[in-house]
Amino acid sequence: MTVLIIGGVAAGMSAASKIKRENKDTEVIVLERGGEVSYGACGLPYYVSGVNPHEDLLRIRKAEAFIASGIDLRLYHEAVRVDADNKRVLVKDIKQNTEYEQTYDQLVIATGADAIKPNLPGINLTGVMTLKSIPEARAMKEALAAAGDTVAVIGGGYIGLEMVEALLHLGKKVVLFEMMDRLLVNFDIEISTLVYDHLIEKGVEIHLGEGVESFIGEECVQAVKTGKGEYPVDLAVLSIGVRPNTAFVRDTGINMLRNGAIVTDEYMRTSLKDVYAAGDCATVRHRLTGKDVFIALGTNANKQGKYVAQTILGKPTAFNHCLGTAMIKVCDVELGRTGLSEAEAQAEGIPYGTSLVTSANHAPYYPDPQMITIKLVYEKETKRLLGAQLVGGPGAALRTNVYAAWITLGGRADEMEEVDFGYAPPFAMPWDVMHIAAGRVK
Length: 442
Known about the structure:
The protein is of the alpha/beta class. The chain contains ten helices and 25 strands.
């Protein structure tokens, strides 16, 4: 059996490694259009900032190790077209500038997602940059070292705010633009407002409700233009989201969402026979809503890669437990979320209640206690926990995992008041903030 995998980062290499470990006789071919495989994209902002000074630490496992395990890994090879009826893929060898056809028995599409670059005037000026790969991180690091003091960040989501932190760490003046009326729109407003206030305290110039219309300059970017004015900058970082890299399969008739994410079932099977999809190019099945949704997270991608391998090997394992659990650090503030936000519960038409509390992360008789705010969303009648969002000092983000486990087990929000959480002055209060949040459930 020949398994052809298109894409060599999280999902693709997880699938390839699992298949080869479980069945050494299976021919596993991986096509990767770039020169890097299996790297930690989430660590790129910390490399740019110098918090991690070593590029090599971003590489989880190098190409040579995969090749030594028996995987036919072909770097700088890009899939151009898929012929699912005849089980073959047209491949471009980028370095040789030649094309050839590769046949398969089972195909896994794991091409990830690309940073969105809108077709705006000046978008191709030197100094307008995105951050999605190691080469881009290297280029950004070099550009920041040579650039002036003012850097624009376009987009107030996860990557945008991580870049804000990285730039502040480098001593840059940061001007942040977000076209929506608040930051972090996948959190509820009570949480995102606290992050906004924290960044204002850190000296970030924030422009909400201002979409960028163009970038101004001759060869290099010199200003950002919005509907409200022009702002001088020395560099601009685009962080306005990602788009699944699936254009090469649009003409196959494969089922997709409007943004190009390939729709899969819980076993990562697509609408095409013997074709699977995994990672940031594909949907996941949400545990609470049962819907196929696009949630581009490395946690999902790694699990999907493993499970799609098991399905191909005849041991199908459903990936139907996604809750969209995510964490982020923004300067001195930690955030986490899992399950449904209040806005999402409203959109689903679920009768719900909420609990919002703020309390210390640890005992006042241990130095430097800091506040943590928790918002719970629960089913009104049954009190079943549907979602949790946290923001605050140390310990806020990791408490999110407790809620993810509780939702997965179907626990009631109010019953968490009875859980025997551990206590010691450096870590918590005898009545933890999670106890207090549960006690406010009505």
